[in-house]
């Protein structure tokens, strides 16, 4: 099927900014609840309540049968961890929380990895490197750059530090649907791929592992874990490409 990349008007980008502000506020509420003793289901309840308070509807709940409004990915879980009442956060854990919602016909999507209390230096370094790689990728989101410049920004930052880039899951275009063209891998070759155009909106989401890049999906058909069960970190923002450079829609 031919790729179809939707160019957003300034008015559409304004609507996407509004929904992504809600995403950021929901993630802030979830982050405040990320404490030892809380369950990942508690975080889902926080997300659900805050989302409804702000007038949005979930992008995740019911998506291909997904059973929650939030993804909660603890330690070796890369992405798509399902919130559960029996998964209790403990001191030293890291958790990736990923949230998306709709408002006025447009979708917002963002993720962040959060430390639970005092974490190991190794876990902190992995989180820092992943967050830094996202910022470097965002900086590439200017008209005329190439799509693979984004992935190369991630890959070239984390691999020299001894980490690996997950290749099984990628970022994506976003707009009236949560997943639109083009796919946005977190690896690539500089100067290659489609030319970035003003009006594109991309969800860029590096997933970086402490060990092997390989992942496996558990029996629930959602939860993706590192094959070697070492730690993984995940950060995501929705970014509009504008004539003035990248506009991070999901940052308050």
Can you give a write-up of this model?
With 252 residues, the protein is of the alpha+beta class. It has a single domain, classed as Creatinase/methionine aminopeptidase superfamily (Creatine Amidinohydrolase). 27% of the residues lie in helices and 26% in strands. It is built from four helices and 15 strands. It has helices at residues 10-32, 40-53, 121-139, 147-158; strands spanning 57-58, 70-74, 77-79, 94-103, 106-115, 164-165, 171-173, 180-184, 201-204, 207-209, 215-217, 224-226, 232-234, 237-242, 245-248. A hairpin with a 6-residue loop joins strand 11 (215-217) and strand 12 (224-226). The model has no long low-confidence stretch (mean pLDDT 98).
Characteristic terms for this protein:
alpha+beta; five-stranded antiparallel beta sheet; Creatine Amidinohydrolase; globular; 252 residues
**Widest β-sheet, arrangement of strands:** 8-7-9-14-15
The chain-level mean pLDDT equals 98
From the alpha carbons, calculate the radius of gyration and give it in angstroms.
17 Å
CATH fold name, please?
Creatine Amidinohydrolase
Sheet with the most strands, sense and barrel status: 5 strands, antiparallel
User: Into how many domains do the coordinates divide?
Assistant: 1
What layout of secondary structure does this protein have?
Blueprint: H1 10-32, H2 40-53, E1 57-58, E2 70-74, E3 77-79, E4 94-103, E5 106-115, H3 121-139, H4 147-158, E6 164-165, E7 171-173, E8 180-184, E9 201-204, E10 207-209, E11 215-217, E12 224-226, E13 232-234, E14 237-242, E15 245-248
Antiparallel strand pairs: 1-4, 2-4, 3-12, 4-5, 6-10, 7-8, 7-9, 9-14, 10-13, 11-12, 14-15
Helix pairs in contact: 1-2, 3-4
């Amino acid at each position: 099927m031919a790729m179809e990349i939707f160019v957003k008007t300034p008015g559409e980008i304004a609507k996407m900014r509004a929904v992504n502000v809600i995403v950021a506020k929901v993630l802030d509420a979830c982050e405040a609840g990320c404490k030892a003793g809380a369950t990942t289901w508690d975080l889902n309840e926080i997300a659900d309540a805050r989302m409804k308070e702000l007038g949005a509807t979930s992008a995740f709940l019911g998506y291909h049968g997904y059973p929650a409004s939030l993804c909660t990915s603890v330690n070796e879980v890369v992405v798509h961890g399902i919130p559960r009442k029996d998964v209790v956060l403990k001191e030293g854990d890291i958790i990736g929380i990923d949230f998306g919602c709709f408002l006025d016909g447009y979708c917002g999507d963002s993720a962040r990895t959060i430390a639970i209390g005092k974490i190991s230096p190794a876990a902190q370094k992995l989180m820092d490197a992943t967050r830094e790689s996202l910022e470097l990728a965002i900086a590439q989101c200017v008209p005329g750059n190439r799509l693979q410049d984004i992935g190369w920004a991630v890959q070239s930052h984390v691999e020299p530090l001894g980490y690996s880039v997950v290749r099984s899951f990628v970022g994506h275009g976003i707009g009236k649907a949560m997943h639109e063209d083009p796919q946005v891998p977190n690896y690539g070759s500089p100067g290659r791929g489609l030319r970035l155009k003003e009006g594109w909106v991309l969800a860029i989401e590096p997933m970086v592992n402490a060990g092997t890049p390989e992942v496996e999906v558990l029996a629930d058909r959602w939860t993706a874990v590192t094959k070697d069960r070492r730690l993984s970190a995940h950060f995501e923002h929705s970014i509009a490409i504008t004539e003035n450079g990248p506009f991070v829609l999901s940052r308050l």
